[in-house]
Amino acid sequence: MTTPSPQTSEGQPRDAVNWAESVSTLKVQAVPASAVNLNVDGRRVNAALQGFGQLWQKTYRIKLSGAAVTSKELMQVWKQHFPEFHPPQSRFYPSFAGVQPGELLLINASLTGLPVYTGVMVIYADESVLRL
């Protein structure tokens, strides 16, 4: 059983700003010169189950004991430098707005020598959680 989110005075869930708005087709606004925008712009949104592979949820945890950084500060750095944490054969290109709800990230990767050009939409992001 799920518990509904607390409502604001306007009747919206308190975390409504952290969720992407519903869209039927994807629209890429600007593409970095080194990115390939193939299979994203103008395409319909697919849920994870209709995607091109098995649905896996990956949860990563980092123990910050003794660190001089909070989890919120860590998440902020991770969002700002998201593409830098991926290997060279798997490039992520966030929009110029960054890793924010509703924004698209283009993915140019190579799987066993075959190119993969796709993208993901950020569906939820707050100060400590990111869901693509």
Distance between the ends = 24 Å
Helix content: under 10%
Q: What is the total domain count?
A: 1
> Rg, please?
17 Å
Main structural class = mainly beta
Q: How are the strands ordered across the major sheet?
A: 1-2-3
The secondary-structure element order is HEEEEE
The total of helices stands at 1
Beta content: 15-25%
In total, the number of strands is 5
Q: What profile does the largest beta sheet have?
A: 3 strands, antiparallel
Stretches with pLDDT under 50, minimum 5 residues: none
What does this structure look like?
The protein is mainly β. The chain has one domain (22-131). 8% of the residues lie in helices and 19% in strands. It has one helix at residues 71-80; strands at 90-94, 104-111, 114-121, 124-125, 130-131. Strands 1-2-3 form a three-stranded antiparallel beta sheet, with no helix packed on it. The protein has a two-stranded antiparallel sheet with strand order 4-5. The longest helix is centred in the middle third of the chain and has 10 residues, at 71-80. The chain is globular, with a radius of gyration of 17 Å. The model has no long low-confidence stretch (mean pLDDT 80).
